[in-house]
Amino acid sequence: MGFTGKPSRGCEVCRRRRIKCDEALPGCSHCAKRQIVCPGYRSQFDVAWRNQNFVAEHAVLRRKKAIDKADRDGAARTQVERHAYSKIPKSLPQDYEQYAINFFLSSYILLPKDPGVRRGLLDCLYPVWTQIYSTSPLKPALTAVASCMLEGWSRLRPDISVSLSRKHYVKGVAALREALEENKDIGDDVLLASLMLDMYEEVVSFMTGTRSFSPHVHGTASLIAQRRRQPVNNKTSQRVLLGARSQVVTRVLANAQPSPFDPSEWSDVTHYVLETPALILDDLNIDVANIHAAASCLNSKITQRDLAWEILQTTIELDQRLLAWASSTAPVEWMPVRVAGPECIPQGVRDAGLYHEYCHVHKSIFVTGTLNIYSTSRIKLQLAILACLDHLGIASSDAARVTALEIIQDLADNVCASVPFHLGNRTEPSRIDDKSVQYPHIAGIRVPDHHYAAAAAFGGYLLTRPLVEVLTARCPLRTGQREWIGGQMQRLKQIYAIRPI
Q1: CB atoms within 10 A of CB 183
Q2: 86-108 residue pLDDT tens
Q3: Together in a domain, 389 and 259
Q4: Same domain, residue pair 265 and 234
């Protein structure tokens, strides 16, 4: 049967026939059955940076044909497409790309931020951007992300035929591949270009309600290894490397995959860079990813008691290290303030979505994003503990099981309590600079001006993953909590005009 999954490493014969290749050695079984010589398999590196010009061109032509057919049949266009055609002229101003870049830099990059939450990726983008050459692959890659963000706030979808972001994305992939084929040293701009292309995939996935396979993460992990073999002599380069590592760790955590990194191998990079609480949490999450992946592989049909005991003991020890991070490494001012009552929570916020009668107010949207990463990491560890206990056949009344479920419930409540701080009273699309949005606040202290811009830009993006992690956790939660989270996910779709392809 036809295989339409993520990009394949399979041999040319299987890809031409559009069937799944088993990638057996020395040749695949399909070629063996046909009694032909198997041409071999593509490397993961080539898959991540494959040439997508033909695919993009074919997709645009297919969408144009569908639109033309709908016009001939008199079918009504969707609201998003009507807006797209009414607002975008056939000839765009020459400074549109620069406008998109300025919008992205001012709305997403140059926001005031606590030094403790800096992880390297977006924090060091601007200094590298100001130093690049016109031929750098970072230019089209960043332009793709910037155009995609601007289109999103203009209520345009990145998959429609008039989208400019897709064109820049294809150019970015081609420019990155060309830079790598020239066998030059991997510079900061090349590594950031790979990260920007991955960010584009993630943003498109968010805006279209689809799952991203993040193909560039595998390529980025390979680039990190190459970059580390070269001298890293300045703090900007070190922060770029740490930002790349953070991006990869975030993806493997979401996909239950083991991390390709060892925290002990990064001491040469972190030696000259201030280890912020966020970077230290990244170190811990490398181990969390490995534990989560190992526990996910425990097969109930094959008893592996020794392995299960080893995973269980390692998980409990790692959970204690995460607790120590929260109590000793994270600054005291990061701890959320619990607020309740009409003097702190406007009625509009309460009507839009309030779990229980209280919510949390944080120092900034980036702090609450970091604390939610901490919460979801500990949830993964508790799920690993439960998986090991199940595998070992320990009774459901065991104290360790009860404790793990209580911790998951408490962490899930913390994630739910952060929703009003992320979204305020928004239920429909609004402007990114809309200061009429209501947010919860500490009694007697008004909402800081920087929170309006930061929450609009990052609120939904930072909140989606924690909500998904809690919603899909394979364990019981309080009655009605999953339904409430599902309602907030629908609210996110309304706020950001997310519509599946």
Answers
A1: 6
A2: 444 555 555 788 889 999 998 88
A3: no
A4: yes
